[in-house]
Specification:
This protein is mostly beta strands. The protein has a single domain, classed as UDP N-Acetylglucosamine Acyltransferase, domain 1 (3 Solenoid), CATH 2.160.10. Strand 18 and strand 19 form a beta hairpin. The longest helix has 8 residues.
Length: 231
């Protein structure tokens, strides 16, 4: 199946739907983020800081957002209203975050779009990705955005291998998708609306809407033997 933007995301849940205008594939929006920010960003900072945090000059932050101690927001970036940027979060260049989002403790986000209500819980890396409305990454989940071969990321859809034209492409995580703890999403992964990836899975490719990816490897239980000098 060829996945369109509407198959994955409700554009009514972002103020930045123009990023997708005229695109054939949703990942094309990722390559437009920098240009979009240059055209639309008007630096205003209406947030509240708890403790001490660094916020660059080329950053917009909406009302009701709280930035906690130790966070660093480099910019250019747009962060919406009523968000929580937690302790130690690192928001790099080219980031657009919607309303009521969370970027948790020790998370790093780069060149990505988060729809309203998206949650990057803690200890996550998100690069060159799109997280849909109320999408959620559990603790330690990582979105890998660069192949070991360093060439362009390809996506296989409907029997076609499509060159995205992007050397760096993380994941498209559809509305309401849940990603468990310590998951790795490989470059070019696509998760459909309402899908789930259970903890510890290393995922590659497309997971259709409302489907679950899980590991089935058996666990081994053995007798605990005492350790010590052999007599």
């Amino acid at each position: 199946m060829l996945y369109s933007t509407g198959d994955l995301f409700d554009l009514g849940q972002t103020a930045h739907g123009d990023l997708f205008a005229g695109t054939e594939f949703p990942w094309e929006a990722i390559g437009r983020i920098g240009t979009y920010l240059s055209a639309h960003l008007r630096p205003v900072q209406l947030h509240r800081v708890v403790g001490s945090a660094y916020v660059g000059s080329d950053v917009f932050i909406g009302e009701g957002t709280v930035v906690e101690h130790g966070a660093m927001i480099m910019g250019p970036a747009i962060i919406g209203r009523n968000c929580r940027i937690r302790h130690g979060a690192f928001i790099r260049d080219g980031v657009i975050i919607g309303d009521e989002c969370t970027v948790g403790h020790s998370c790093e986000v780069k060149n990505s779009l988060l729809f309203n209500g998206a949650e990057v819980a803690h200890l996550n890396y998100v690069g060159d990705s799109i997280l849909g409305h109320r999408a959620h990454l559990g603790a330690g989940a990582v979105v890998s955005n660069l192949k070991l071969s360093r060439d362009n990321v390809w996506v296989e859809m409907d029997g076609r291998c499509i060159d995205t034209g992007l050397r760096m492409l993380g994941a498209l995580v559809g509305d309401g998708a849940e990603v468990g703890g310590n998951v790795v999403l490989n470059p070019g992964s696509i998760l459909g609306k309402g899908s789930r990836v259970y903890p510890g899975v290393t995922w590659r490719g497309i997971l259709p809407a409302h489907m679950i990816a899980k590991n089935r490897s058996p666990q081994e239980v053995v007798v605990r033997r005492p350790r010590g000098p052999i007599s």
